[in-house]
Amino acid sequence: MIDLNKIIASSQIQGLAYVGELKQNSVTVSSFSLGAGDHQDQTLTLDATNENALSTTQIKISGMTSDLNNKWIQIRGGATIYPTGDYGFAVRTSRSNGLSLIFRVQNISGSSTTIPTITYSARAFYFKGPW
Amino acid sequence: MPFDTDNIAFAIPAFEMDKIIYSKTFSTTVDDNTLSGDTYVLEDTNFTESSPVLGIYSVDAGTTWTDFSQYPSGTVQLRPTVRCTVTLRSNSNLEISKGQSSLINGGSPYTLLSRVIILAKEEEPSLDPANVSIEGNILYSSKYNYLKVHDQGSYHVASSDTTVIPHNLGYEPFVLVSYKDDVLNQIDELFPVLGEGAGSQTGVVPDSTNLTIYTASGDRTIYYRIYKDR
Q1: Which strand (E) or helix (H) includes residue B223?
Q2: Phi-psi region for residue A4, left (φ > 0), alpha (ψ -120 to 50) or beta?
Q3: Could you tell me which chain B residue has the CA closest to the CA of A87?
């Protein structure tokens, strides 16, 4: 049965249309030592598409000791993850000729620490804006 | 007006889809300062505070776009120089809040471009077409694939909370989760701050069977949508 309450009768209304199906990419950074307070950035780019599009983006960090290891985390704009008391991650997105993500790992321990081999992954759907 | 045959489609969808009920591009002159908390009213939208709001903004005339998002301060930060959130207030005003960490135009006002959409909320029983405001000419079209809703709902929390919502899709779905601050009467997205070292966690973690939503303390109503596609 059609639920008439679910029908919004206006020819003006539109949905979130894909302009790009799922895009996914990853990059692996080998284990390295990081001094107290230091950080290292890694850029990951998804396939170029309309940079004006909206997107639904998820990131995954594999290799860290955390319940969040290898799990997709939904983001919009960015995220901060603290797997241990030794180091933390931050990520943010921007769009110019595609969707770019910067992943940062930073030593927060107060002394030098070893960052394990880490794989950063990202995936996104792109949606057509009405504009 | 001539018909564009590429843009004619009629179908009753098998699955519920998100419905864009408002979209607009704004060009706003904003102050170039390093103070946080500047707020600019964009427009009275005719919609209320529990409708999901999404959008992007640019401070370089549209060369680079950034998602509207919160960027909390903390030990590890990776924030854009200009960070903006978009909020739909209970009085239906659409507002931008801007903070920035350094000057980008020598202290002179600059132009903030923004593109905002509002989605119909789940419980929308009816909608006055006169209130719908969509920029551009794109309607539903069989040329495109559309995001399909698998499940959606809302719940209220009064303190730090972890809620697990089963979906049993067998894969990690995309989701849309936002919250209404029941004190401030505004709706925002959850900025993920996660991990054992994060203290109070917020964020959204979908796995192949469940959607786990972490929320920090506060009187909040959580709205979620789980989508079918992957």
Answers
A1: strand B220-227
A2: alpha
A3: B76
Q: What is the pLDDT of residues A119-130, one digit of tens each?
A: 999 998 887 766
Partner residue opposite A71 with nearest CB, options B136, B174, B205: B205
What's the ipTM? 0.86
Q: In 3-state terms, chain B is what percent helix, strand and coil (to 5)?
A: 5, 45, 50
Kindly report, residue by residue over B41-100, the tens digit of the pLDDT. 999 988 876 678 889 999 999 988 898 988 888 889 899 999 999 988 888 889 999 999
Contact A84 B115 (CB under 8 A): no
B88 CB contacts (<8 Å, ≥6 apart)? B45, B47, B48, B49, B51, B53, B94, B95, B118, B186, B187
Which residue among A2, A13, A52 places its CB closest to the CB of B65? A52
The model's confidence at residue B40, banded by pLDDT at 50, 70 and 90, is very high
Residue B172: its chain A contacts at CB < 8 A? 58, 72
